[in-house]
Amino acid sequence: MATTKTPKSILKKSSYPATTTTSSKEERDRELALYHAQLIQARKDIELEILLSTETLIDYPLATSPHDASNPSPEDAKAFKEFLRPFQPSDYDALIVERNINDHCGYTLCPKPRVKETGGGKYRIVGTRGRAKDFKVVEKEELEKWCSEACARRALYVRVQLSETVAWERSAAQSLNIIDLLDEPKSEGSITDRLQKLELENKEDPEEKHKADNLALERGDQGRAAFRGLVDVKIEEKDIRRAAEPPSLDQDDLSGQLEGMHLKLEGHTPKFGSGKETNDDDDDGGMDWKM
Fold this sequence. Notes:
Layout: H1 25-57, H2 74-83, H3 89-101, E1 123-126, E2 136-139, H4 140-143, H5 149-159, H6 172-175, H7 191-196, H8 206-219, H9 251-259
Antiparallel strand pairs: 1-2
């Protein structure tokens, strides 16, 4: 009686051990809960940062004369831009309202108080001088937000640069958005005066720190804005067991390529005469047609 042989597998044996999943359902649920808890905590941290920034910017500017809205202090301007990074337009509107409650001009870098219109009525007519090119009807409440029309333009110039996306959902590129002022700080003093004020201490630049944080976020590093995801990705270099060999071309292969090189079309050699050739005469069924 012939013995039956076990068929051999034609599949290549894997050199890597099979990975086994040891995490149970409870552990996966726990990781998912921690992931969402970290997202919620990040949102709370950013909301608290916006609130504290709003409270700080209510009392701005910190510098006094000769600095004003048209020539703000470089320190105040830099801090103002840094505070506005996580802001949305709605947060900026809330900042203007808070400054108006304290009778400050809505533009953060303006030290003047806001104007208060006298008389009743809800609307005011502005731009009636000269040929009235700028004639318009404006709400009284809108005019009382600023000390002048120039500050209104400066404040709105900043507002249109703020992102509508909430800070915890922004990409790294959106977080690096640099805010410009309509009236940037002007150079003050001579070169000698500025050299005397130059600080040679190695202080960490907030803007550079922000860029480094975003770079760490893209790399996947652990930090305040980089939280552990649901999938752990580990990249390993492939282990090559045989010695590396340079590519070579035998003489026979070279001669075979030279023979048909003139037939190649963009590196591809078409095969002529292969397959079943069709004959137009076969379609007639072997019949001779007579006219």
